[in-house]
């Protein structure tokens, strides 16, 4: 069930949001019996704390939700969502204490707090439904929440049920939902249609590699989204150790995030022409795996020396980016769970991105702060270009030395994104390593909401 707000016909329980400095003032304004109840409970208004206040018949007549203080709020987001799991089923309405500029963030967090991944085991979702606060566009937030939940479901599904074929089916279902055009280039047709690197990476799997394409909208600026769809990554012949392979079902997190963002764009009817490209493969091991020291041709005509088969994501993205650039879009974005170097640099909570366009960066940074979807700009550092030029081929897929790995990967992709195309690349993690408000452990979208908020300004729509 998709997250939803309470209906206006529901009889909501009033919610009072109280922070560390406002609790006493709130208590002083209440009837004596409420004052006695709150004091006897020992309630402290920390983030995640709640207190039901019984009415005369014993049922709750109100609820207090703690909001901490400035220092506590700076250390996280979606603060009200931390208390939602403690609330009984029913409808709720925030009637006091929530700053107006936080209403949208907290309402979205409340929605997302009902997410559970229950495909393989029965799990109970929260049934504490919020009446959308005044001034909040409930329909818009429900669409955004649905896009985020789609991303989470796709990432959380193991490769046994989310191979390239299943990812194709999920994309086809999304296209059908929104009336988008849909096509796939499959298996050996990748070679005849000139996508040699997508084919090379995915040919060792018994699930054929493919390029998934979706097109929607017939007017407005052209936006192309490219998502890495490596449905499982063994590392290929440069086999990952077990500890590094354990989360590789999430290596299609870029594709999952792109599909979630596409749902938001189409569901909200943004006035643009959307193109989604997903190279979907499994990087498996067999007798026909691509090998270290192989030199691959690419769609763009550049040759690539393979110095590590575990740097495969940039190879499949390269062919897709070259294809996307051929239509000269107004903006092209790639999203990928690409490098461990990005995680070392910024950790799991930030979505690092690379762009040479200061206007895009300014729009993204402002949007990220507004919608509480943190991003961090990283540099396309031109002096490192020499590191991706091995001499024997045009490009090296895995420069030696290990320094600046996220940057050299981004520079590699930029070579394929087309001269003159506005291009931005996200190197995301796509995984919540420990539970946080509105974000249970597991797959998570990163950067999509910031992009959605930034697109109107960037594209002039």
UniProtKB/TrEMBL annotation:
Gene Ontology BP term (one): proteolysis
Segments forming a coiled coil: none
Pfam families reported in the protein's UniProt record: Peptidase_M17 (PF00883), Peptidase_M17_N_1 (PF21337)
Domain of life: Bacteria
Keywords assigned by UniProt, alphabetized: Aminopeptidase, Hydrolase, Manganese, Protease
Record EC number: 3.4.11.1
Assigned protein family: Belongs to the peptidase M17 family.
Annotated protein name in UniProt: Cytosol aminopeptidase
Native source species: Thalassovita gelatinovora (Thalassobius gelatinovorus)
Taxonomic classification: Bacteria, Pseudomonadati, Pseudomonadota, Alphaproteobacteria, Rhodobacterales
